[in-house]
Amino acid sequence: MFDDEDGPLDLGSIRFAPALMPLAEILNSLHELSRALWTGRLIGWQKQAASCLPSLAKPLYDLVAMCGSTVSFLAPREVELDQALRAVHAVPDVRVQHELRVALGDHELPPWLPAFIGTSGHRDRLTTALCAYFHACLMPYWDDAHLRHELELITYSQSVIRQGMRRTLEQLTQLPISAARMDSRPLARHESRNRTITLAPSPFWTGEPTTRIFPDGEVRIIYRTSTALPAIPSGPGRRQAALDQLVGHTRAAILRNLATPCGTTELARRVCMSMATVSEQTTVLRATGLIVTTRRGKQVQHALTDLGRVLLQGRLVELPTVA
User: Fold this and answer.
1) How many CB atoms lie within 10 A of CB 38?
2) What does the alpha-carbon distance between residue 54 and residue 30 come to, in Å, rounded to a whole number?
3) Average pLDDT of the segment spanning 257-274
4) Is the separation of the CB atoms in 88 and 123 below 8 Å?
């Protein structure tokens, strides 16, 4: 327990985020991207993200640019993208409306926003935008981002052993616990004692540390990782970025999601796109010899061709010989 002038802070309430949370990183990155575009000072991954921002995600960008990073309903703690999207789908309307009112303050709600966000259980436009942005802008850097999060966890653990919790928290988050900001106001000590505090270092966050509050009492402290992301993705991420540039983000997403063959309906679910869009793009991919489609009655199944696998893997595979 910390002993502060207003009472003790339970160390048991402080934890380190065990893994990156994809939607939280979407919110973090969009917030930082909007600030960078406003100042005209794009760095590293921001240049790549700005150049490949899907049109489907433009309303999402506008939403974060208006509301900042405090809209916690967009940042569930699930670490799997599908589960996180389902969590956003199910957020109660009253919570969404409250967070938007707080974020917008005296500003009126833009007329396009309610239709974009939808209602609980009916948020297809919002979740499609989240999915499209993640695949186009964050996925190429995801391996690099995971590595930096893991390095941060190691640093945190070693620091706690060497110099204790308080000093570790102040060093990693770059501010004293009593000064942590919550919705742009000081974090009162009685609040910090009664809440779960999660340390969530973000490779996509470049600004000063901030906090995000959740209805269940969690206070998530977001701060930048010690090591920045590379300007160009490394390893598999570099290959993904190159594939996106070669065939386009939509077709690249379809190819990546056909590592296991499936039908049109399942493929549309995997890539978070409409059936019409998937049908149009699979027609193009089939014409270029990257996928093959087989029909059984009314059912169709799409699969990668040998050429498609070569393109997806970024290396030659043994192709069948022609007799």
Assistant:
1) 9
2) 13
3) 87
4) yes
